[in-house]
Design brief:
It is a single chain. The chain has about 375 residues and is α/β, with parallel strands linked by helices. The chain folds into 3 domains: about 15-75, no CATH class; about 85-330, Aldolase class I (TIM Barrel), CATH 3.20.20.70; about 335-375, no CATH class. The protein is about 30% helix and about 15% strand. The protein is built from 13 helices and 13 strands. It has helices at about 35-45, 50-60, 70-75, 115-125, 145-155, 170-180, 195-200, 205-220, 240-250, 315-320, 330-335, 355-365, 375, and strands at about 15-20, 20-25, 30-35, 75, 85-90, 130-135, 160-165, 185-190, 225-230, 250-255, 295-300, 305, 315. A 9-stranded mixed beta sheet has the order 10-9-8-7-6-5-11-12-13. A 4-stranded mixed beta sheet has the order 3-2-1-4. Helix 4 packs parallel to helix 5. The relative contact order is 0.11.
Length: about 375
């Protein structure tokens, strides 16, 4: 069933509790204004925008709120008993590419009906999620992507999108992203030529489509970032990929560490560029993370897990609702605890690989050099 058309005004600002504090932010623009509990309560009770907010909004975002009705210009989110602030939502594992390095493995086009997606997003809101990342598969080819995106905005979430950029030149997508701006749209870059790009995606013409989408989004003023994916096939173009990014003047981050699939499959590992494999001894030690504590992941079927890697055990949100998320802390403690051959390891304090990822490498029967320091220190 398709979502009904929106009847809610687009809110330029969001005021919300956020992980023990309170913030005001404007979707589509960086930065947030931290406010006190007293000011948050003033916004909850107020009718007109207070002068302190009008002044701050004008300075930070060039928004004129002086004398404006609060309800028309600020969405004030309710307080919550839960401490979550971030979530990732995998709309669909399906993709229009077939990248040889993709950690998803089997890319099935499966997802929930609109009513269930709506309920899952309401659970995220009730949990306190302010920062929501939409991902896939390729999220923009999901038939309900526009509805999910608009509804998340209406619930008072700031949205990031991870995409291959293939739909960015689509008029409907561009209209959506300009009418309701995303905080950031991160586009993966798979090469600097059609030969390497199309070879990696295994889709002829994908490089041309990527460039067209990137150019269209840039000209439309979409806030962009580029993720440079370095593998064996395109490693010789690493500098050219950086030059391509520089043409658009957007921030970049390089990803060169190829992992097994989410099912523990090894089919992705041969795409790794040995030249760009960061030695395990040079990686930042893993000191724990916010997975399952202030952040969580939701798959296309509404199953919540601590993150994209540690997917089981999971919580059925449609069955358990927001209360089910309270189980994630104990699940995280179990998944992040060093187990098996890692128990008692003398190198734990300097290990740069979290236990859920170690588990996938073991299932894939990966060489130790991909994830463990013992190989390099032997």
């Amino acid at each position: 069933m398709q979502a009904p058309p929106s009847k809610m005004n687009v809110q330029p600002l969001i005021a919300s509790p956020f992980q023990g504090g309170y913030v005001v932010l404007r979707p589509g623009l960086p930065g947030a204004l931290k406010i006190s509990n007293a000011k948050y309560q003033e916004l909850r009770r107020g009718r007109d925008c207070p002068s302190w907010l009008a002044g701050a909004a004008a300075k930070a975002w060039n928004v004129d709120l002086h004398g404006k009705p609060l309800a028309d210009h600020v969405l004030v989110r309710a307080e919550t008993a839960y401490g979550f602030g971030h979530a990732t939502y995998e709309l669909n594992l399906g993709c229009n590419y077939d990248c040889e390095h993709c950690y998803l493995g089997l890319k099935r086009f499966e997802g929930m009906a609109w009513d269930d997606r709506q309920r899952v997003m309401e659970v995220m809101r009730d949990a306190g999620v302010v920062s929501l990342q939409l991902t896939g598969g390729e999220p923009m080819i999901d038939r309900l992507f526009p509805d999910v995106y608009e509804y998340a905005h209406e619930l008072g979430m700031a949205i990031d999108i991870l995409t291959n950029g293939s739909r960015l030149a689509n008029r409907g997508i561009l209209d959506l992203l300009t009418a309701r701006p995303a905080n950031l749209v991160t586009v993966s870059v798979y090469g600097a030529s059609a030969e390497s790009y199309d070879g990696l995606t295994r889709r002829p013409g994908s490089y041309k489509t990527f460039l067209k989408g990137l150019q269209a989004a840039h000209e439309a003023g979409v806030r962009l970032a580029l993720a440079l994916i370095i593998v064996e096939r395109n490693a010789h173009e690493a500098d050219d990929m950086k030059t391509l990014a520089a043409r658009f003047g957007v921030p970049t981050k390089t990803y060169s560490h190829i992992t097994p699939t989410i099912y523990g499959g090894a089919e992705t590992l041969p795409s790794q560029s040995p030249e760009y494999l960061v030695p395990t001894t040079a990686r930042k030690p893993f000191r724990g993370c916010d997975a399952g504590r202030t952040a969580f992941h939701v798959n296309p079927h509404g199953m919540a897990s601590i993150c994209k890697v540690g997917r089981e055990p999971s919580v059925p949100l449609l069955k358990e609702g927001v209360e089910g998320l309270t189980r994630l802390v104990d699940i995280a403690d179990g998944l992040l605890r060093r187990q098996g051959g890692c128990t008692g390891c003398g190198l734990q304090s300097t290990c740069g690989t979290c236990m859920p990822l170690v588990t996938l490498y073991r299932q894939a029967k990966s060489p130790l050099a991909n994830y463990c320091q013992h190989k390099e220190r032997s």
